[in-house]
From TrEMBL:
<dbReference type="InterPro" id="IPR025669">
    <property type="entry name" value="AAA_dom"/>
</dbReference>
<dbReference type="Pfam" id="PF13614">
    <property type="entry name" value="AAA_31"/>
</dbReference>
<dbReference type="GO" id="GO:0051782">
    <property type="term" value="P:negative regulation of cell division"/>
</dbReference>
<dbReference type="GO" id="GO:0016887">
    <property type="term" value="F:ATP hydrolysis activity"/>
</dbReference>
<feature type="domain" description="AAA">
    <location>
        <begin position="139"/>
        <end position="291"/>
    </location>
</feature>
<dbReference type="GO" id="GO:0005524">
    <property type="term" value="F:ATP binding"/>
</dbReference>
<dbReference type="GO" id="GO:0009898">
    <property type="term" value="C:cytoplasmic side of plasma membrane"/>
</dbReference>
<protein>
    <submittedName>
        <fullName>AAA family ATPase</fullName>
    </submittedName>
</protein>
<dbReference type="InterPro" id="IPR050625">
    <property type="entry name" value="ParA/MinD_ATPase"/>
</dbReference>
<dbReference type="InterPro" id="IPR027417">
    <property type="entry name" value="P-loop_NTPase"/>
</dbReference>
<dbReference type="GO" id="GO:0005829">
    <property type="term" value="C:cytosol"/>
</dbReference>
<dbReference type="InterPro" id="IPR011006">
    <property type="entry name" value="CheY-like_superfamily"/>
</dbReference>
Length: 399
């Protein structure tokens, strides 16, 4: 296997790479149409690939994205006349460095070294392409609720941002409220692509190009937003959702899914792929009764008998319900509560999640931090003083 592969028809660039590597490279004298052509000439997984993007840059970026998807341990270096123009797309494709054609052998050698060093710690130990058939490697955390207006998107966005802060570039957030999802608004994003693009383009069949359809948030979180038009949801099936989440779980440590209210086809498809369901409700009679019905439905379907995480939003001692009342109604403990917080509306209106804002912590921020720690593997949740798990006190809320 060759450690450096060069794909170019330029004699000048070939001479530069030859000098930078002391001849230790393999040349592909034409623009590759697929990542497989690069791997074939390399005889396996190369350490660094240099791609000449001066002609057909879109094709080159597709190949770069494919190589990164096959193995993050491949360092891709682009050569471009217009680095500023291709910079964002190159970043999405996982490119490690961009050089101009004027770069000399020393600059090329430095770029190759940097690309190899940045990529090497991420090389898969198996050396095999990552595909959905290999099974999901990451957690799929799906936030569901029987009704709207309970803060589902606020919870999902803060959880995703918090996980990203814990492990940079580890997390992707999927807006599965396909008709009226507002994750893009909650994160102040103007996405170029949506979930409809991801399931109707080559990414539907090929994980190698999937990352090119994600939007990168300033925190390092990757986001797949809902379509702009509610009508686009009609062309997305439950099978599409299942394949998408499988592919994302093979690429990311955490996949956080925000869903539409209720249990529609898309939400059920997401739950089929979910490792960690978060059942969310507000602290009011309609919300609690809806959660009980949702729990009963999931039980009837045989889904998550022990692995459900129950989250109660808008906790308010003056609201007429106690946590014991809620637990008596749903016949199980509440795992975490989120208080009413005046900072939340401002955060939503600004498109900046509370866990991104930082600054002075309030009770809501602390509880959101505990939620993140729960899924990041840090056991910080403790039982409330004076209460035993499994014991339910209080009066049932309705039938």
């Amino acid at each position: 296997m060759s450690h450096v592969v060069l794909a170019t028809a330029s004699p000048e660039l070939t001479a530069t790479v030859a000098a930078a590597t002391a001849g230790a490279y393999v040349a592909l004298p034409q623009l590759p149409a697929t990542p497989g052509e690069v791997l074939a000439v390399a005889g396996g997984l190369p350490e660094v690939v240099v791609l000449d993007a001066r002609t057909a840059p879109d094709q080159v970026l597709d190949v770069a994205a494919g190589l990164t998807a096959i193995s993050p341990g491949i360092g891709v270096v682009l050569v471009s006349d217009c680095p500023a123009e291709v910079g964002l797309a190159a970043m999405r494709a996982g490119v490690r460095d961009i050089l101009t054609p004027a770069a000399d052998a020393a600059e090329m050698r430095d770029a190759l070294t940097r690309a190899a060093q940045l990529a090497r710690p991420q090389t898969p130990t198996t050396g095999l392409p990552l595909t959905p058939d290999a099974g999901p490697a990451g957690k799929v955390i799906t936030v569901v609720s029987p009704k709207g207006g309970v803060g589902k998107t606020t919870v999902a966005t803060n959880l995703a941002v918090g996980l990203t802060r814990t492990v940079p570039h580890s997390t992707v957030l999927v807006d599965l409220d396909l008709q009226f999802g507002d994750v893009a608004s909650a994160l102040n994003l103007d996405p170029e692509y949506s979930l409809a693009d991801a399931v109707h383009n080559p990414a539907r069949r090929d994980t190698m190009v999937l990352k090119t359809f994600l939007t990168l948030h300033e925190t390092g979180l990757y986001v797949l937003c809902a379509p702009e038009s509610p009508a686009a949801a009609d062309g997305i099936s439950g099978d599409d959702v299942g394949r998408l989440l499988q592919a994302l779980a093979s690429q990311f440590q955490y996949v956080v899914v925000d869903t539409a209210p209720g249990l529609n086809e898309h939400t059920l498809a997401a739950l089929d792929q979910t490792t960690d369901p978060v059942l969310l409700t507000s602290m009011d009679v309609p919300g609690v009764r809806g959660l009980r019905k949702e729990l009963d439905t999931l039980t009837d379907l045989g889904m998550f008998p022990e692995g459900r995480f129950v989250l109660l939003n808008f906790e308010d001692p003056a609201g007429g319900l106690s946590i014991a009342d809620v637990e008596a109604t749903i016949a199980r403990d509440v795992d975490l509560t989120l208080p009413r917080c005046p900072a939340v509306p401002a955060s939503v209106n600004q498109g900046i999640p509370l866990l991104q804002l930082g600054g002075k912590k309030n009770p809501m921020t602390r509880q959101l931090g505990r939620l993140v720690e729960r899924f990041a593997g840090v056991p910080t949740l403790v039982a409330r003083p004076g209460r035993r798990r499994g014991r339910h006190r209080g009066v049932k809320v309705g039938a």
